[in-house]
Amino acid sequence: MRPSDISEIKRLYKTDPERCNIDRISGCYVDADKNLVTHFSSGFLILPEEEQFKYLELFRKVLSGTRDKNLLLLEPRTVHRDDHSGDMRGDEVKLLQELVQTGLKDDEVNDRFYRKVIENYSYVDNFLILLAHQNYDIPGKTNDELDLEDASEEVYSHILCAICPVKSTKPGLGYVADDRAFHNLPLGRVVDLPMNGFLYPAFIQRSADYDYVLYFTKDTVDIRPQFADGVLGSNTPLGASDQKDVFSELLTEALGEEGDLSTILGIHEGLKTLVDEKKTEQESPVIDKEKLGELLRSNGLEENRIKAMEERFDTAFRRSPNESVAETATTEEVTSEEQENTALRSYPEEVPIEERIFVASNLVPSRSIEVKNQDFTIKINTNRTELLETKVVDGRKCLLIRLEDGVSVNGIPIQM
Predict the structure, then answer these.
(1) Are the C-beta atoms of 25 and 103 separated by less than 8 Å?
(2) Is there a contact between 99 and 82 (Cβ–Cβ < 8 Å)?
(3) How far apart are the C-alpha atoms of 188 and 173, rounded to whole Å?
(4) For residue 171, is the peptide bond before it cis, meaning its omega torsion is within 30 degrees of 0?
(5) Could you tell me which of 209, 213, 222, 367 has the fewest CB atoms within 10 Å of its CB?
(6) What is the CA radius of gyration of the chain?
């Protein structure tokens, strides 16, 4: 999805209930032991206005963040059925389609979805599964990208899911409006902003695309592949943080003694140029083994080092252990079977060949490049890296920064 596609759908969840087209919401409250405590389904516009505002805030958050870091476009797997029915969609996608088609009005379909989430979502505390259904009458556009309200081309029917932690509030003094006084209030529970969620079908080129899901993850390190696999029927790419770590490892080994400042900055400049050129496109540019080799070659690396990088490339990709490991370890009572499963999951998982790619935007800092050692950290604007230089002065290795404007230390100007 292009940034403009995401922004267009996000505007549908603005905090203005009167302009919102959500027709129904449903939800399921799950306790720390994975028991379904209660569930509900309601027309959205009949809710009290203050509750509508709160729900809109939660749903809007699912469409927030950085593309390819917090917002991932996933393609559900196809399946090969023995009955030769020709239907290549997995059961997970079929369930998502049922949710869209029924508009969340079928409690049996909703319940099947809740139980699938509970089965595949690991969390140590209580959480809330929220679903919204909305029909968006997609307006036509003029050549100047202005909406044509009377020229609708398609109705985009979709569901938006938000999975939110339910946190405990501590007992304490609180204001009671009826008494106009402060009293001791008991333990309560409050719904927090979503940890994960998704939009289905995806909204691509201003149209519904049932072959894709837009997946939201608040944590870019732990993107919960078990949830994406079991609920969305999709493989997840390596997380943004893991991609950066793997890329740094590969680059360090490939460069070796040739890893001078100009070479490293040249590689980052090549990546930045690629990202800037493709910024408005639907799919973000990716770096595979061949493209990385070309990038290194264009920055003067010798062929033997590029070949060594290519040999190391595949084995460098390892996904972090399943997200449930750390959470299982925090529970007070863990069975011997759970301990054994946790031990098995504690080893990094090998990433499938087709997923051994980097999203270029995950490798390039958007604002500044960081230069550091054990004694200092310096950040340089990504557009001004030419100010940096390394040089040997009087036999000492030095990092030089060309000064063009005033410089200050803790707000105090330095006199040159």
Answers:
(1) no
(2) no
(3) 12
(4) no
(5) 367
(6) 25
Confidence grade of residue 336 (pLDDT, cut at 50, 70, 90): very low
Q: What's the pLDDT at 275?
A: 83
Chain-centre distance for alpha carbon 404: 38
| Sequential DSSP letters for 146-198 | -EETT---EEEEEEEEEEEEEEEEPPEEEEETTTTEEEEE--EEEEPPPSEEE
Report how far residue 263's alpha carbon sits from residue 390's, in angstroms, rounded to the nearest whole number: 12
Would you say the C-alpha torsion 305, 311, 314, 318 has a positive or negative sign? negative
Task: Give the rounded distance of the alpha carbon of 303 from its chain centre.
Answer: 36
Average pLDDT over the chain, rounded to an integer: 81
Q: What are the structure tokens assigned to 293, written together? A: 């080799």
Counting beta carbons within 10 angstroms of the beta carbon of residue 408, is it exposed (0 to 12), middle (13 to 18) or buried (19 or more)?
exposed
pLDDT value of position 146: 63
Residue with tokens 């997995």: 90
Return the pLDDT at 79. 58
User: How many C-beta neighbours within 10 Å does residue 7 have?
Assistant: 11
pLDDT tens string 102-152: 999 999 999 999 999 999 998 989 999 999 999 998 887 765 656 666 656
Does residue 360 carry a pLDDT above 90? no
The dihedral through the CA atoms of 332, 335, 336, 341 has a sign that is negative
Q: What is the mean pLDDT of residues 281-299?
A: 83
On whether the CB atoms of residues 141 and 147 are closer than 8 A, the answer is yes
Rounded distance, CA 109 to CA 76, Å?
20
What are the structure tokens assigned to 65, written together?
A: 């963040």
Whether pLDDT at 330 is above 60: no
Tokens of 336: 């011997």
Q: Which long-range contacts (CB under 8 A, 24 or more apart) does 175-180 make?
A: none
Rounded distance between C-alpha atoms, residue 158 and residue 243, angstroms: 31
Q: Are 386 and 268 within 8 A, CB to CB?
A: no
Tokens describing residue 371: 């230069």
3-state secondary structure of 215: strand
d(CA 229, CA 349): 14
The tokens for 257 are: 């003694």
The closest alpha carbon to 61, from 156, 238, 192, belongs to: 192
Helix ranges (H only) for 233-284 are 240-255, 261-277
